[in-house]
Write a structure and sequence with these properties.
The chain is an alpha/beta fold and about 425 residues long. The protein is built from twelve helices and 14 strands. Helix 4 packs antiparallel against helix 5 and helix 7 packs across helix 9. It starts with a helix and ends in an 18-residue tail after the last strand. Keywords: Amino-acid biosynthesis, Hydrolase, Magnesium, Metal-binding, Serine biosynthesis, Signal.
């Protein structure tokens, strides 16, 4: 009499097990779609508590806090030269161009920069014009082209002719630097792919050269080596792993930085360098514009306030006059890293943390050491750090450079003057 009831209980148990098994099977794909989230950890090699502050940034803004696949990716922006690498990849490329005779003679040197002075135009014409016809490469890597190489190098590196005359005049010191812009302008006549090839050759040479190496450029010597900072490459890698949208903003030419950025895991479409306009696929002497500055005006490069404009334009899709203005916090980078006064504006725009590599640049160090909102951290250079600056930074008098080049006090957002600051991280 009990056997039918027992059979029914067995059947019920079997149904329950089958239902549970089905539920587990159905749940498996969802679990696979949301794997355990592990926050990446930074390697050692940082000054003081900087590693802990950076790790806190990753922990707070990374995709594991909380794990939400659809969340807006936090943006991190790095300067390039002397921030991610030691030394300057624009300089390395210029020296390679001169040593290998890859600068095409312009028909008129004044056409290479709207800011070039008559004195510089005359000096360059005198030194270079007899060497090649317009459009042909100048033989700056040969003995007969050494004087031309020296004149170009002087205008580029010192913003002056070899006799000391100013090479540029009349620019806005918060939106462009004519000497920086002159390098991509001298690449006129080449395709972006050809320039990337030049940059790759220079990269190979400079990474292979020993630290401290010099190279012959014209009749003078110049820095001949570059190194990636291991700590910065590790930081970039772990920010990306944590879900950050990592960008490079540099005042070196776009094709050049594209080549170098690959070595730090940043793709070309996340690089914002100085960008030429093109004609028939070749670079021209004119530059792309940003904000209210049109293409060809050559006055808004990735430099000081220009970096803000270009980041707003390329990263956040802001157009027109608004790109030149501070954006609401949700449309700004949470993290920024830089080493120079050229990086001040985009660093100030960062909403959570700002990393400064100390190269004794006055306005930047005034703001970093003042640290009025507690979001600035300072690190010595990772290779060959500078010694402590012997005198305070002149924040209260001449630490700021105005649009017309006039020195002025460095002011906080509330317009109060930052007092002079002592160099303490070196």
């Amino acid at each position: 009499m009990t056997r039918p009831r027992t059979h029914r209980r067995i059947q019920a148990a079997a149904v329950a097990l089958a239902t549970a098994a089905g539920a587990l099977t159905a749940a498996a794909p969802a679990q696979a779609a949301h794997p355990a989230c592990t926050t990446p950890k930074l390697a050692a090699g940082w000054y003081g508590d900087n590693r802990a502050r950076l790790q806190q940034l990753i922990d707070q803004y990374g995709s594991c806090n909380p794990y939400r696949p659809g969340r807006t990716r936090p943006v991190a922006v790095f300067d390039w030269d002397n921030t991610v690498v030691k030394n300057d990849v624009g300089d390395a490329t210029m020296f390679w161009l001169l040593r290998n005779g890859k600068i095409r003679r312009p028909a008129d040197w004044k056409s290479t920069s709207r800011y070039l002075t008559p004195a510089a135009d005359h000096a360059l014409t005198t030194a270079c014009a007899p060497l090649a016809r317009p459009g042909a490469p100048l033989p700056t890597g040969t003995p007969e082209g050494a004087a031309c190489a020296d004149e170009i190098n002087s205008v580029y590196g010192a913003s002056a002719t070899r006799t000391g005359a100013p090479a540029f005049a009349g620019w806005d010191h918060r939106t462009t630097e004519p000497a920086y812009a002159w390098l991509p302008q001298l690449m006129q006549g080449w395709t972006p792919a050809q320039v990337r090839g030049f940059a790759a050759a220079a990269r190979t040479e400079n990474l292979a050269a020993p630290i401290g190496a010099k190279q012959q450029v014209g009749t003078t010597t110049a820095t001949g080596w570059v190194r990636y900072y291991d700590q910065q490459r590790d930081l970039i890698k772990n920010l990306q792993r944590a879900g950050f949208d990592v960008w490079i903003s540099s005042a070196s030419p776009q094709p050049v930085v594209e080549v170098w950025a690959q070595g730090a895991g940043v793709a070309a479409d996340h690089v914002i360098g100085i960008r030429n306009t093109t004609r028939d696929g070749k670079l021209t002497t004119h530059l792309q514009g940003c904000g209210t500055v049109p293409d060809g005006a050559d006055s808004m490069i990735t430099y000081v306030d220009g970096k803000r404009c270009w980041i707003n334009k390329e990263v956040f899709g802001v157009r027109g006059a608004a790109a030149e203005k501070v954006q609401p916090a949700p449309r700004r980078q949470v993290f920024a890293a830089g080493d120079s006064d050229t990086d001040v504006t985009f660093l100030r725009d960062a909403t959570a943390l700002r990393l400064v590599v100390n190269r004794n640049k006055s306005e930047l160090m005034c703001r970093a050491y003042d640290n009025s909102d507690g979001k600035w951290i300072v690190n010595p250079m990772f290779i060959e750090p500078k010694k402590q600056k012997s005198s305070p930074y002149p924040c209260s008098t001449t630490g700021y450079t105005d649009h017309d080049g006039t020195p002025a006090p460095v002011r906080r957002a509330d317009t109060s003057v930052i007092p002079d600051q002592t160099d303490t991280v070196f």
